[in-house]
Specification:
Order of helices and strands: HH
Largest sheet: none
Helix content: 55-70%
């Protein structure tokens, strides 16, 4: 029997300064700045995820 739950297709690989340098425009970025950008992206993603979860909980009530 198949489950009706949607699969969560998330990329579990964490973004690192080294990964960031693989994107066009970030090839020569310094370690400190790359780390700051990665941390900012992670914080932004957490805010978005929390917002989505809160909206889903609100819609279910």
């Amino acid at each position: 029997m198949k489950s009706n739950k949607k699969k969560n297709n998330t990329n579990k690989e964490k973004l690192t300064a080294e990964n960031l340098r693989g994107f066009k425009g970030f090839e020569t970025i310094q370690e400190e700045e790359a780390t700051h950008i990665v941390n900012s992206i992670n914080q932004f993603a957490a805010i978005i995820a929390d917002n989505i979860l809160n909206n889903k909980a609100y819609e279910e009530n």
